[in-house]
Specification:
There is one protein chain. This protein has helices at 10-21, 29-36, 39-47, 68-73; strands spanning 26-28, 53-55, 64-67. By secondary structure, the protein is α+β, with helices and mostly antiparallel strands. It has a domain at 26-81. A three-stranded antiparallel β-sheet has the order 1-3-2. Helix 2 (29-36) packs across helix 3 (39-47). The radius of gyration is 15 Å and the shape is elongated.
Length: 82
């Protein structure tokens, strides 16, 4: 796995490509919690403004939707892959 002419690894290029492709995609609360490793971490990132959430208008009990690219950007690598 080499570097391109700008010094980026293939995995870095793939990751950034994934983030671009996730633009406009939304995740549910439960999926975001699973990916980030817990509700506490999701709430912390929300409070810091690093992840944004929306709630569709019209119904009082609609689900929160999270920006998928922001959620994926803050996923911690699993130790078994390090």
């Amino acid at each position: 796995m080499g570097l391109d002419r700008f010094g980026r690894s293939e995995s870095e290029i793939r990751f950034k490509s994934l983030l671009v492709r996730l633009h406009g995609v939304e995740f549910s609360w439960s999926l975001s919690v699973k990916l980030l490793g817990g509700e506490k971490r999701l709430r912390s990132l929300l409070e810091k403004g690093k992840i944004h959430a929306t709630k569709r208008a019209g119904a009082q009990n609609t689900m929160w939707r999270f920006n998928a690219a922001e959620v994926v950007a803050y996923v911690k690598p699993d130790r078994k892959f390090l």
